[in-house]
Amino acid sequence: MSASSNGLSMDSNMLVDESCRREPRMDVVRIVEYTHFPRVDSESTPRLAFTRDVSASGMCIGADEPEPTDTMLRVTLRGVDGDPGITVVDRVVWCSPTQDGRWWIGLESMTDKHLS
Fold this sequence. Notes:
The protein is mostly beta strands. The chain has strands at 2-5, 8-11, 31-36, 47-55, 58-63, 72-78, 84-97, 103-109.
C-alpha cells in the first residue's frame, strides 16, 4: 500500500504510529532552502524543498536529491508569505526514496527553533 502527500508518494512501511513519537508533529507545508553546513563550496546554490511535518526537535522534508545520513544542513524555513523565516542547523537522520524518484529526508534539529 502507498499513500501520497504533497505530490510525493510514500510506502506504508514509512508510516509511523504517532503514539510512538516523543512529541507531536504538525502537518505543516512550507518551502525550505538548504545548503550543506559548513558550506564548502562558495559556488553552491541553496536547494529547495518543502516540509511534510515539523516538530520542536526536527522536520521531514521532501527534496529532489538525497542527502547522506549525518550530513549537517543549514535550513531556512520560509514563512507562509514566502519571506525567509528562521534559519536552523539540522542533522540528516534518515533519507528514503519515494516512488516518484524524489526523497523524504528526516532532519534532527541542532537548535530547537523549528516551532519558534
